[in-house]
Write a structure and sequence with these properties.
alpha+beta; Double-stranded beta-helix; 8 helices; 26% helix; Alpha-ketoglutarate-dependent taurine dioxygenase; dioxygenase; AlphaKG_dependent_hydroxylases; iron; antibiotic biosynthesis
Length: 334
């Protein structure tokens, strides 16, 4: 007697340059279809790193929220966000408010936190007129394509994220921490290994050092897991960077990344990282009603510029602790 894996029960379309695509007809009952095929869909993600489910015909926030909750083992509250999101319901958000004419480069969601999502869930309720795909890249493949010397330095030192919170750009203090209480913010920072410094104008500057390479808690595969390129000043459009430096100063950008010892990361390194991501990017334009499920450790994601109106709902699910991923940099919270 032979047994098939749950993933083998679904006909997944695998083509070069595209994410795995599963086409189905949910017959107007997306929640019921997900309830029946949840384990098989998750098995596809475990095997391939992501899957785009087409044919669910998701229509609104209520149905999408129900599908998200069926697919996940638990939804997470967004913390330490770098850009504001609309909150639809507990654990269900809009995509980050990022200028539509700018590329959102590859990253792993909340890779600078001590507890981050193991799964990312995306649902398209309104597809843009052009562009706007949620693109993905396989993290172990990206890691293998990077220069050994650069990887070894990041493994040894980790990476440092510096943030300057204000009420003018990016996520505000209250949006990022869920409170505007100084005492609560300080308590969160201490508990999550974040150095903090209040500024004379009432703003907050934080620094946190994290591992750039981790091991997947299930497969043990080494993953390039960070937001080094995405949150670096050299990934910003030149005119945006020049404006921010002019207004805030080079030391007070809303966010920036450096080597773990504090040395600046040059434009050449950031360009290299983004080129390697681009070389391994796969894409499929959104269609209204689509669902995408992404293994957040194995698979980086980004967003292409777009035209027109775009509504994509997001949930962060299945929390994973950094301590369970063999981090290369020691983090002491307290």
């Amino acid at each position: 007697m032979s047994f098939s894996s749950p993933a083998a029960l679904l006909d997944v379309d695998l083509r070069p340059g595209k994410p795995p695509i599963l086409r189905t007809d949910a017959a107007g009952d997306a929640t019921g279809w997900i309830a029946e095929h949840r384990d098989a869909v998750r098995a596809v993600v475990a095997e391939h790193g992501s899957v785009l489910v087409r044919g669910l015909s998701l229509r609104d926030e209520a149905e999408t929220s129900a599908v998200f909750r069926r697919m996940a083992t638990g939804l997470m509250t967004d913390r330490e966000s770098f850009a504001p999101r609309r909150v639809y319901s507990d654990g269900v958000y809009s995509a980050s408010k990022w200028p539509p004419n700018q590329q959102m480069c590859m990253h792993h969601e909340l890779s600078y936190t001590l507890e981050f999502p193991g799964l990312m869930l995306f649902a398209c309720l309104r597809a843009p007129a052009a562009g706007g795909a949620t693109v993905t890249a396989d993290s172990p493949t990206v890691l293998d394509a990077l220069p050994t010397e650069l990887v070894e330095r990041f493994e040894w030192e980790g990476w440092l994220l510096t943030r300057n919170y204000n009420d003018e750009i990016g996520a505000s203090l209250a949006q990022a921490f869920g409170t505007d209480s100084r005492a609560a913010v300080e308590g969160y920072c201490r508990a999550n290994a974040i150095e903090f410094e209040w500024q004379p104008d009432g703003g907050l500057r934080t620094r946190q050092r994290r591992s750039a390479v981790v091991r997947h808690p299930v497969t043990g595969r080494r993953c390039w897991f960070n937001q080094i390129a995405f949150l670096n000043e050299w990934t910003l459009a030149p005119e945006v960077r020049e404006y921010l430096v002019d207004v805030y100063g080079a030391e007070a950008l809303p966010f920036n990344t450096s080597f773990g010892d504090g040395d600046p990361i040059g434009d050449d390194v950031v360009q290299l990282l983004n080129e390697v991501y681009q070389d391994h990017t796969v894409r499929e334009p959104w269609q209204a009603g689509d669902l995408m499920v992404v293994d957040n450790l194995r698979t980086a994601h980004g967003r292409e510029p777009f035209e027109g109106s775009r509504e994509v709902l997001v949930a962060m699910a299945d929390a994973v602790r950094l301590a369970d991923c063999s981090p290369t940099v020691e983090v002491t919270a307290g």
